[in-house]
Design a protein that fits this description.
With 485 residues, the chain is α+β, with helices and mostly antiparallel strands. It has a five-stranded antiparallel beta sheet with strand order 3-4-5-7-6. It has a two-stranded antiparallel ribbon with strand order 1-2. A hairpin with a 2-residue loop joins strand 6 and strand 7. The termini are far apart. The relative contact order is 0.09.
């Protein structure tokens, strides 16, 4: 529309800078000048407040002396683009920017709408373009900002007016960071020490408001430290159980096992920090994804547990019953939205030492065979796992998900969108990935209503597991000998 207006203004000797288009001559339907003409001649015209004529033609468009409106706002400094914003649903949304400008946006004192969406996305995704230590130092730079050399009277007035509001904005960023992303401070001792030094220095600030924030920060730090220590104690207890327990699998009803697996795996899933899903894509260092790694390792443990229980039983009738109960426990897992165990159990049942047990599978009652056939359809990987995606779309939290599908989506978003757009950080891509992570985290917002049974929880935390396929094959051959061809 800009090009069209420029042409019309040139033809009619009008000053391009002073005019814009309006639809139907009404002031409330100003044309967005970076839209294509087709936007206003098709069905999209109605969405923009325009009126389309017959055959998709625009009824009327007027040139009026008024300020131009653009969907995209470009901020330039020193003759360079530093940030691009788009008008979306009546609000400006950051699309791209330099690292400094993205951080500066966090302390924008003119942003009074209290929308934490940008703050939350920024704190979730900044690790894609800078380290946590760099981010911390840049926040400190904004907090401890000083007047330029030889300031003008106007500089001094502006500095005095914005200093405390800017510091408050930065302190709010720190509060959000500590409350929602404490994971960063557990991974880096240096970062934690810098945070402690900063909070300690806040006691020396002259502003009473800043001092109050300092006390809040200290309270948040103490609370998060306590939560982290409690979680670490839990993982240490689980990891310390080096010796597997004696099997009590046949003492637990399949329905009850399904419920207890929900509770156990849900806790492991909920403990995964949001940052870990993105670290898995961007950094791929095991030390940066400890709880996600534990959850992934749990998948293999459950799969091999299934195989171990089955091939450990030499008696055919008892082995058929074990297989039957695992299938029913898988069915219960689906019923209670534990899709993690759905796939881990299916994986275990499809290990070669188990699938080769022809007599065992043939001995299953027909109704159980039908149950297993239906369960296998849910785990069908074809058409981008459509059956599972459909099942997931109908389910409501609490949910223990099968994570590879989410990690695949995140990888697709990361690889399919450029990191930079015209030399600026592609923040629209980061927002899209951040929203997908929030989708994952939302699955754990509601608790299961089952009561944990300590004895069963202890057992499923460290069940009997043989992880050597060769050993499992030996055990399987003791159950059913190889049939000569």
């Amino acid at each position: 529309m800009d090009d069209i207006l420029s042409y019309v203004c040139t033809k009619n000797n009008l000053a391009f800078e002073a005019y814009t288009f309006q639809l139907n001559g009404t002031g409330d339907t100003v044309v967005e000048m970076d839209r294509p003409l087709s936007f206003y001649t098709g069905g999209a015209a109605a969405a923009a407040g325009g009126v389309a004529g017959s055959g998709g033609c625009l009824a009327e468009m007027f040139i009026v002396p008024a300020e131009k409106r653009y969907r995209s706002n470009v901020i330039r400094e020193n003759d360079k683009d530093v940030m691009v914003l788009h008008l979306t649903y009546g609000r400006l949304q950051v699309m791209s920017g330099t690292p400094d400008k993205l951080i500066e946006k966090l302390s924008d004192t003119e942003d009074t709408n209290n929308d934490h969406t940008y703050l939350d996305t920024m704190l979730l995704t900044f690790r894609s373009f800078m380290t946590t230590e760099e981010f911390f130092q840049r926040l400190l730079g904004r907090f401890y900002c000083v007047l330029p050399e030889d300031p003008t009277a106007e500089d001094i007035v502006y500095f005095d007016r914005t200093k405390e509001p800017t510091q408050i904005k930065i302190l709010q960023v720190f509060l959000w960071w500590i409350e929602n992303h404490w994971h960063d401070f557990t991974l880096s001792t240096d970062l934690r020490n810098q945070l402690d030094d900063f909070v300690d220095d806040l006691k020396n600030q002259t502003s009473s408001v800043v001092k109050t924030f300092g006390k809040q920060l200290l309270d948040f730090i103490n609370l998060q430290t306590l939560k982290y220590e409690e979680m670490q104690d839990y993982y240490r207890v689980v990891a310390r159980r080096g010796k597997a327990m004696e099997s009590m699998f046949m003492e637990i009803k399949p329905e009850e096992l399904g419920q207890q697996l929900c509770l156990h795996n849900f806790k492991l899933f909920r403990n995964i920090h949001a940052i870990e899903f993105l670290n898995q894509i961007w950094i791929a260092k095991k030390e940066d994804t400890p709880y996600l790694n534990f959850f992934i390792e749990r998948f293999d443990k459950e799969s091999y547990w299934v195989a171990t229980e089955i091939v450990s039983e030499k008696n055919l009738k008892k082995r058929i019953l074990i297989l039957k109960n695992f299938i029913l426990a898988t069915q219960a897992s689906v019923k209670y939205n534990n899709f993690f165990s759905l796939f881990s159990f299916i994986s275990g049942l499809n290990l070669s030492p188990v699938t080769r047990l022809k007599k065992t599978w043939e001995g299953l009652p027909d109704p159980i065979k039908k149950v297993y056939a239906e369960i296998e359809k849910l785990a069908d990987p074809s058409r981008n796992m459509k059956n599972y995606r459909d099942l997931l779309g109908k389910a409501a939290p609490p949910i223990v998900p099968f994570l590879p599908i989410y990690l695949k989506d995140l990888t697709f978003m990361n690889d399919g969108n450029p990191k930079l757009v015209d030399g600026l950080i592609n923040f629209d891509k980061l927002r899209m990935m951040g929203n997908r992570v929030k989708d994952i985290i939302s699955l754990a917002e509601v608790d299961f209503q089952f009561s944990a049974k300590p004895a069963i929880q202890n057992f499923i935390a460290m069940p009997p597991v043989e992880t050597s396929l060769a050993k499992l094959k030996e055990m399987s051959l003791l159950c059913e000998k190889q049939v000569a061809k």
